[in-house]
Amino acid sequence: MRVDVVTIFPDYLAPLDLSLIGKARAAGTLDLAVHDLRTWTHDVHRTVDDTPYGGGPGMVMRPEPWGEALDALAGPETHLIVPSPAGTPFSQATARALAGDSHLMFACGRYEGIDQRVLDHAASRMRVSEVSLGDYVLFGGEVAVLVVLEAVTRLLPGVLGNADSLVEESHADGVLEAPMYTKPPSWRGLDVPEILRSGDHGKIARWRREQALQRTAERRPDLIAGLERPDQGA
Ligand code: 6GU
User: Fold this and answer.
1) Which of 21, 159, 184, 192 has the fewest CB atoms lying closer than 10 Å?
2) How far apart are the CA of 83 and the centre of ligand 1, in A?
3) 22 within 8 A of 74, measured Cβ to Cβ
4) What domains are defined for the chain?
5) pLDDT tens, 165-206?
6) How does DSSP classify residue 198?
7) How would residue 230 be classed by pLDDT, with cut points 50, 70 and 90?
8) Best of 9, 138, 143, 152 to mutate for ligand 1, by most ligand atoms within 8 A of CB?
9) What is the ipTM of this complex?
10) 141: CA distance to ligand 1 center in Å?
11) What span, in angstroms and rounded, lies between the C-alpha atoms of 51 and 170?
């Protein structure tokens, strides 16, 4: 997968060299480049923002550098992702969908965001998605790109050694995962649940499912409503 990130703070994306994302890049699974938006400015101050039409606090990113960045980097296969607290919620389902794209381009807004015409113009030439991490406000889109890319990269073929971990994890089947334990069997007076040491894999699977549902009901009742009921048929 090809990924281009455009930002006025390329250093913010330095963690993409590390750990499993760095490994996916080194292996060629992820062909990622980070670009400085100011590459596409032409004035001596390398201006990227200006005051908002209609008034109000803060600054808005001017369209010209973004237009040139898109002209330089985007093609017919491009899916433009714009992180924004005004976007649609990012989820594991979004990550699965993005993992099937061949070219993602991230436009990191700062200040009060990017001139809307950039998104409208791009939408006439490519797929454009505004995504939000949740109901809170960040300084800019850079950290959201780290989050989205981490969620997507681990779904790319060959990145995770053990594909089973994708099946068992939280959100894979719409519920939170059950608690996990390792050695030692007793620690500071707390014992690992007996059933996990029983060797009865059917019982263990049922116990984990119960724990997962109980946790989800307590912590994320909103997810329970979205579960398919086995008695409802197909
Ligand atoms: Cl994706 N971007 C920004 N700037 N703030 C956010 C966000 C994204 N998601 C939640 N808050």
Assistant:
1) 184
2) 6
3) no
4) 2-153 (3.40.1280.10), 173-232 (1.10.1270.20)
5) 788 888 888 999 999 999 999 999 999 999 999 999 999 999
6) S
7) low
8) 138
9) 0.94
10) 6
11) 43
- Minimum-distance ligand 1 atom for the alpha carbon of 139: 4
User: 3-state class of 170 per DSSP?
Assistant: coil
Position 232 pLDDT exceeds 50: yes
Whose C-alpha lies nearest to ligand 1, atom 2? Answer: 84
What's the token pair of residue 17? 């060299």
What does the pLDDT read at residue 170?
Answer: 87
Binding residues: 109, 133-138
- Find the Cα–Cα–Cα–Cα dihedral 224, 226, 231, 234, rounded to 10°: -160
Which residues does ligand 1 sit against, CB inside 6 Å? 83-85, 87, 131-134, 136-138, 140-141, 144
Best of 82, 84, 91, 148 for a ligand 1 pocket test (most atoms within 8 Å of beta carbon): 84
C-beta of residue 152 within 8 angstroms of C-beta of residue 144: no
pLDDT tens digits along 41-78: 999 999 999 999 999 999 999 999 999 999 999 999 99
Strands 103-107 and 78-89: parallel
Buried b (16+ CB within 10 A) or exposed e, 133-166: beeeeeebbbbbbbbbbebbbbbeeebbeeeeee
Q: How far is the CA of 71 from the centre of ligand 1 (A)?
A: 25
Gap between the Cα atoms of 71 and 83, Å rounded: 20
Centroid of chain to Cα 208: 27
